[in-house]
TrEMBL record:
The keyword Glycoprotein does not apply. It is found in: Cytoplasm. InterPro entries: AB_hydrolase_fold, NDRG. Residues 1-26, 316-355 are annotated as: Disordered. Contributes to the regulation of the Wnt signaling pathway. Down-regulates CTNNB1-mediated transcriptional activation of target genes. May be involved in neuron differentiation. The gene is LOC110500835. This is Protein NDRG2. Signal peptide: none annotated. GO terms for biological process: cell differentiation; nervous system development; Wnt signaling pathway. Keywords: Cytoplasm, Developmental protein, Differentiation, Neurogenesis, Wnt signaling pathway. One of its GO terms (cellular component) is cytoplasm. It comes from the Eukaryota.
Length: 355
């Protein structure tokens, strides 16, 4: 009986030396940085280019979360702090985020010539091109101020494209003659920066948040695209009424968010009274991150998410809105700052956004 010996080649696995880079970890870190910073796109629309930042992948069976910011802000200053909260990370991991900058509001944008800036209605007509570009079947819209108005118009024109709508600080009404006269006087006596700050904050909020207001004042007044900000501001002040009635408006669930002593609190309350109470939630100052999770769950997503205590109600009055434990912190713009781009810890206070 013969015995054959076979030569077997063995590849030696050399462990990484201390301090030697790990390609797999480097790739993972690079992917994480890319996910955090987002992928920027310039999208052609019927009324010009839109700057859009995508976080995550567009290949998902869930609706994307599409945001639109207010006047005097851009997508980063308006929404980055919110989505960096620890409590929002489950949503960030499970949904694609799409942040739209209004025309000319992104960093480095070219100045629009006078008379060429799109109206609020035209900006709403630009959004379908974003869904087509990323091949999104539907979205959950989150809009603040002017962005809430624009997303409302888009939703009314394309009801099948929107599964849910979060409207923060919405004023659906056009300016009346008295408002127009007051605006003319304000234009003569106040700078553009101060006009926008009065839109973003009430007098009470300005007094209670001096540092936050100062940071916005410095950012707006020194913005290189200040002319574009002014054009967006003028367009918002020239908006038309949103025709609201309970039977023929939004076909999707809506969450309205408004704060105490806010510039447009009455307008938001009036808007709430015109929407279907069975599909509309009204949120007074409270923990927005927690309420947003409940809103997502109500549409059938994230059913296994563990939630803390939050009493939810659907209402058309201020007295029976969302309630939540916690100390109030006043800020109208969703712009609670996070230093150095680090993820803030889960806040012990509530996040207030007023209209």
């Amino acid at each position: 009986m013969t015995t054959e010996m076979q030569e077997i080649a063995i590849t030696e696995e050399k462990p990484l030396l201390p301090g030697q880079p790990d390609p797999a970890k480097d790739a993972e870190a690079a992917a994480r940085i890319l996910l955090d910073q987002g992928q920027e796109h310039s999208i052609e629309t019927p009324h010009g280019l839109l700057h859009v930042t995508l976080h995550g992948t567009s290949n998902t069976r869930r609706p994307a979360i599409l945001t639109f910011h207010d006047v005097g802000l851009d997508s980063k200053s308006c929404f980055s702090p919110l989505f960096k909260f620890e409590e929002m990370q489950e949503i960030v991991k499970n949904f694609t985020l799409v942040h739209i900058d209004a025309p000319g509001q992104e960093e480095g944008a070219a100045t629009y010539p006078m008379g060429y800036y799109p109206s609020m209605e035209q900006i709403a007509e630009m959004i379908p091109a974003v869904l087509t570009y990323f091949n999104f079947r539907s979205v959950i819209g989150v809009g603040v101020g002017a962005g809430a108005y624009i997303l409302s118009r888009f939703t009314m024109a394309h009801p099948d494209s929107v599964e849910g709508l979060v409207l923060v600080n919405i004023d659906p009404q056009a300016r009346g003659w008295m408002d127009w006269a007051a605006q003319k006087i304000t234009t003569l006596t106040s700078s553009l920066t101060e006009q926008i700050l009065s839109h973003l904050f009430s007098q009470e909020e300005m007094s209670a948040n001096a540092d936050l207001v100062k940071s916005h004042r410095d950012r707006i007044s020194k913005a290189p695209n200040l002319m574009n900000i002014e054009l967006f501001w003028r367009g918002y002040n020239s908006r038309r009424d949103l025709i609201l009635d309970r039977t023929s408006n939004f076909k999707c669930p809506v969450m309205l968010v408004v704060g105490d002593q806010a510039p447009y609190e009455e307008a938001a309350v009036e808007c709430n009274s015109k929407l279907d109470p069975t599909t509309t939630s009204f949120l007074k100052p409270s923990k927005l991150t927690e309420a947003f999770k409940y809103f997502i769950q109500g549409m059938g997503y994230m059913a296994s998410s563990v939630m803390t205590r939050l009493s939810r109600s659907r209402t058309t009055s201020l007295s029976s809105s969302y309630s939540m434990e916690g100390e109030r912190e006043r800020s109208r713009t969703l712009s609670q700052s996070s230093q150095g781009g680090q993820m803030p810890p889960s806040p012990s206070h509530t996040m207030e956004v007023s209209c």
